Amino acid sequence: VAMTSDCIFCRIAAGEQPASLVFESDTVVAFRDIAPAAPVHVLIIPRQHIVDPSSLDETSAPVMADMFMAARTIAAQLGVAESGYRLVMNQGQDGGQSVFHMHLHLLAGRWMAWPPG
Ligand code: AMP
After folding, report:
1. Which member of 8, 45, 90, 96 has the lowest number of beta carbons within 10 Å of its beta carbon?
2. Containing H/E element for 23?
3. Which residues are catalytic?
């Protein structure tokens, strides 16, 4: 699916919904989370409307690689590559997914206990 007009993250990727963008490429967009759970909290999304990680198939490998490479670039850009960061992707109800356009959370700027609460 190219874009769904009722998807908030498709609207951000299309520039139709304001967001604090930190990274953009042909395939990926990243922006600050509106309810940050850490001093640095960025969401990295594919421009393509992929619902969730369970929707991935064999064609998804390039965009997944682009998302992880974007995380690496953003961490360096925001100065947290050395101090460290956490990458999280939530799937479905028990995973705590609330927006059904797949996204990678990049969390940094504080020590994050493991396991999370
Ligand atoms: P998840 O619970 O993994 O689906 O994560 C969804 C995240 O999207 C949450 O951390 C929300 O705070 C964040 N979020 C929802 N709407 C927006 C928005 N318009 N701009 C930025 N972040 C958003």
Report:
1. 96
2. strand 21-24
3. 103
